[in-house]
What does this fold into?
Amino acid sequence: DITPGYKLSPLFVLSDLLSRGKSGYPKGTNYGLSSAEIVCNLKNLTVNCLDLIKAKYPNMIITSAWRSQAYNAHIGGSKKSDHLFGCAVDIQFPGFTRRQYYDAVQDIQKFVPTFKQLILEYKGSSTWIHISYRNGENSNQCLTIDAASNRTLKSGGFVLA
It folds into this structure.
């Protein structure tokens, strides 16, 4: 059964990865995936990426994870976003400066062995890190993006903006 307390990993339960409740719980079929497949993707993401990050940065918070199609459209998310499949999260570290985010994303790149994308994102005064993990599609791609204009500032690495 898919319940809020379903344990995805030693450090996370399902309710931790549901975009702060705005999308609800996966039900039925979403982009061709069953609810169980989405939860399986979230489990892979937590075990392979998030547990490692949370162990090193215990103040990490998840600001966006799985998104329903309706919620993703409402916030202007990409129609091909890994969030829709339960394969991506956006994380923040309360109290971090931009420089600390820049240092953290470089650190994460070194100690998380496999990921699809690791993105340092800026939008106005906000900064966050996006990480995705998708079985069979992990290329360890690193980017820096200005989310306000959806412009790539650096492909293949990170830049302090």
Observations:
- The first strand starts at residue 29 and ends at 30.
- DSSP finds three helices and eight strands in the chain.
- The beta strands are 29-30, 33-34, 61-64, 88-92, 117-123, 126-132, 141-146, 151-155.
